[in-house]
Structures are given as structure tokens and as C-alpha cells.
Amino acid sequence: MNVYFISGLGADERVFTKLKLDPRLNVKYIKWVKPQKKETLQHYAARLSTQIDMSQPFQLVGLSFGGVVASEIADIACPQQVTLISSMSTGVPLSKFYQLMIKFLLMSPLSAPLLKSANRLTYNYFGADTPELKKLLKKILHDTDAKFLKWALVRMSGWNRKERIDNVFHIHGTADKLIPIIIVKPDIVIEDGGHLMIYAQADQISKILNHRLTAID
After folding, report:
1. Dihedral pair phi/psi, residue 172, rounded to 5°
2. 3 has which bridge partners?
3. Which of 10, 148, 160, 189 could hold 144 in an S-S bridge, CB 3.0 to 4.6 Å?
């Protein structure tokens, strides 16, 4: 079974390195590509879907923003299951005022270094509470393209999906500060799980993933 993993904003497969997945799963990683000027999320997802071998049965696993993209890919492909981790299955209702405010802030020349900086605030919101997690987050933020980060944040804030896709399974942590559990409806809850629980609580997440991903015939 091919299983395609999509990481969070600007991250890569490093966030999945702690997982211990069933050897029967053929794990592949979707690579982020540079978004085109004024590209929609749907068009971007279509371009990413070219990395998937659709002649074979496959599943998607999306982390954070990768979960949003996975839901959009599912509209044009036919995954047997989509697993979301620390993500959203539908758009969070934001007023036009807040959407415009986000766009205004992100257009500021000072926003890029602020968004890419590893500091007490980013560590807190990502749940990076150990030296290992802080080191990982710092590297990810450093390697993230600022233009991609801005584009993705604007697209995520304006995501207006009303209904969950079919065959979706959502895992979320109670301590997630970036996407608070109160605004989502997960299928399984991880106690004290922060936004980086995929790394911090990898053993627990691995058991859930192995059970779900291998249950598909």
C-alpha cells in the first residue's frame, strides 16, 4: 500500500523521522513546490498530485497545512483514506476583517524574519518544550521559504471548505495552540498533544497510524 505523507508549512520529512511504521506500508513523501503568483490552493494541490502514482491504490497522511492540502488533493484523486494530524478537516470561519488583517500583516517586509524566527513565542505555540524539539523547529523555520510561508498562511486563513471529505480520519492533540482542539472535531484525541506531537509523541501516533493505515484492504 502506497502511503503519501505531506508535512506542515515549509517542513519536510524530518518531522516524520520518529514514526515507526509497519513495513508493509510503502511510505513516500510529497515535496513542496514553489507556488505560482496568485495561485489558488486548489490549483496548487492539483500540481502536487502529480507526485502520486494514481494507477495504484494509495492513502494520504497530512500534517497541519499538509492536511488541508491533502483534503484538496482528495477532491481530484481517489485516496482510499485521508489521515489528518494536527490539522483541520473543514475551514475555520474567519471574518473578512481578520482575513484582510492577516494579508496586511503578511505583506509587511518585517513579517518574514518574524515568522521565520525561533523564539519563546514560536516554541510555545508549536509545543517545542524540549531541546530536541526546539532544535528541529529552528532548523525547519530557517529552511522555510518566506514567500511560500506567507502564501500558505493566507490560503489557509481563507480556506472555506464546509464539509469533511469522505474517508477522513482526524488525530488531534488537546494541547495544540496553533490549531486549538476547540475549533476542530477530531476522531481521536491525544492527551497533552501539542502541534508537534507527530515528533514528541511519535510512539503513540505510530500505533494509531499502523492500525488505521493497514486496516485498508
Report:
1. -145, 150
2. 27, 59
3. 10
